[in-house]
Every structure is written in structure tokens, then in C-alpha cells.
Amino acid sequence: MDPIEELHAAIARGAQKHAEDLAAGRARIGGLWARPDYLRSYLAASRILVREARSTHSFNKLAVACAYQQRHTLELALKSLIEMFHVVADDADEIARIQGSPTMSTAPPPAEVDRLTSSHDLGALLWDLCAAHQREAGAGAHYRKLPDDLVSLVADFGALESQQPPRLRYPTVYVKTTKRHESSFENESVVPIERLQERLEAVIDELFGDEDYNKPNDSLGRELDNVMHGQSQELYSLGAPT
User: Fold this and answer.
1) CA 195 to CA 86: how far, in whole Å?
2) Contact 193, 67 (CB under 8 A)
3) 77 and 39 in contact (C-beta within 8 Å)?
4) Of residues 225, 210, 196, the one with CA closest to residue 70
5) Per-residue burial over 6-23, b = 16 or more CB atoms within 10 Å of its CB, e = otherwise
6) Which residue, 7, 17, 119, 148, could crosslink 115 as a Cys pair with Cβ 3.0–4.6 Å?
7) 3-state SS assignment for residue 180
8) Directed axis angle between helix 59-99 and helix 150-161, to 10°?
9) Which H or E element spans position 115?
10) pLDDT tens per residue across span 97-126
11) Residues 181, 174: contact at Cβ < 8 Å?
12) In sequence order, what E strands does 77-219 have?
């Protein structure tokens, strides 16, 4: 079988697997062809859940699930961009090291790197994102600004969870300041679920562009992605290990 025939056969097998999985109600996660896009997955889940809440008049019943999906999408977005800025900074330093040229390092401080995997504090992560953005600007990079509504959206979710991210996941939380467990929502809170979703969708679109990649440089995320791609090619040409 020649390469073209092998390709067509592989496509046919993939289509058959997809049809079988759909009929059986199952999914494939991982490997070469099914790597999960966590950000888009949680964003889609929040969208579907909010629509379900509207169609079944179940906003109260689904409130914590909707809000959790939304705030987790926001956390993933912040961390994704922070990590991209870190990669850009580290690769720029590596290119300069190999070339033996001076550079204005924009490498992040260790605490900022640690928070990528240890923190769920939206406010702290937003601070790290702004700091990374400003470091690059100070070194002469020209990235588009962060969305106007990002700060207020982070603040609104921070107020909802009262600096306790587990509030949207568990009925009780341990509060360090009082050293006791408290009800997650002892008092009534009014949560604008649909409006939060609309704002979240707009912010994610500004940060990462549309899902179909119709405009390759229409967002901060894609600007960073293009820079990382260019750096990867340069490192390869310099003989750096991949």
C-alpha cells in the first residue's frame, strides 16, 4: 500500500471509530489525535450548562455548577497566558545564550512560576499575568493589551467565592482566618449566571480568538503562539535540543 492509500485508510478508520464512539456515547482523551483542550472544553461545558439552566428554568439548581465551570475557565485562561509569557521569556534567554548576545531578560520570578501549579487565586494569577505582560513591554515587545473587562470579571468571581475557591465545589470550606469550617453560602447571593457567561465568552474571544482559527493573529494568545513558533524554529536552527 502506497503512502496515499495508507493515509486514506487511516482517515477511514478514524471516521469509523468516531461513528462507533458517538453511537456508544464514549470519548477518547489523550494520545496523538485526542489531546484535550482544557480551556475550550470547560468553556463549552459552561455554555451548555447555562443554556440547560435557561431551557429547564433551573438557574438555582445549577448555579454552583455553572459558576464553577465559568471561574475554572477563567483560571485556565489566566494560567495559559502566563505560561506562554514564561516560555517566550525562557526561549529568548536561551537564544541569547547560544548566540552569545546580551539580552534584557524577562524571566519570571520563582514565586510566579510556582503559582502556576500551586495557586487557584484568580486575583494573584491576574497580577502575575499583568506583571508578565509589563515585563515584555519593558523589553520592547508590542503585545495587544488585556481585555478591559478582565479585571472586573476576576473581581466579580473573587467576590462570589470570597477568596475561597472551594466554595463553588463544596458545601463547606475551611477558613484559615477563623480556623473553622463554614457553610459555603450561609447568606443568599444573587449570581447573574447568563451575564457572567456572556462576559466570559467575550473575554476569552479577546484573549484567544475564535475556535476555528479564522484570524491567525487576532488575539494576545495567538500573538504569543506565533512568537513561540518563531523562537522554536530559531532554536532548532541553532542546534538547541528539542
Assistant:
1) 32
2) yes
3) yes
4) 196
5) eeeeeeeeeeeeeeeeee
6) 119
7) strand
8) 130
9) helix 110-118
10) 898 888 778 999 999 999 999 999 999 999
11) yes
12) 172-175, 180-183
Closest CA to 42 of 4, 87, 76: 76
167 DSSP 8-state letter = G
113-122 CB contacts, 8 Å cutoff, 24+ apart: 113/86, 116/79, 116/82, 116/83, 116/86, 120/75, 120/165, 121/163, 121/165, 122/71, 122/74, 122/75, 122/78, 122/154, 122/157, 122/158, 122/165
- 137: cell is 513591554
d(CA 34, CA 153): 31
This prediction's pTM: 0.90
Q: 156: which residues sit within 8 A by CB, 6+ positions away?
A: 196
173: which strand partners?
182
Question: What Å distances lie between residue 65 and 42, 172, 218, CA to CA?
Answer: 11, 15, 31
d(C-alpha 134, C-alpha 123), whole Å: 17
Coil vs helix vs strand at 182: strand
pLDDT confidence bin for 1, thresholds 50/70/90: low
Counting other chains too, the contacts that 23-29 makes at CB distance below 8 Å and 24 or more residues apart are none
- Whose CA is closest to 40, among 238, 217, 205? 205
The one-character DSSP state at 173 is E
- In terms of DSSP bridges, do strands 172-175 and 180-183 run parallel, antiparallel, or are they unpaired? antiparallel
Question: How far does CA 97 lie from the centroid of its chain?
Answer: 30
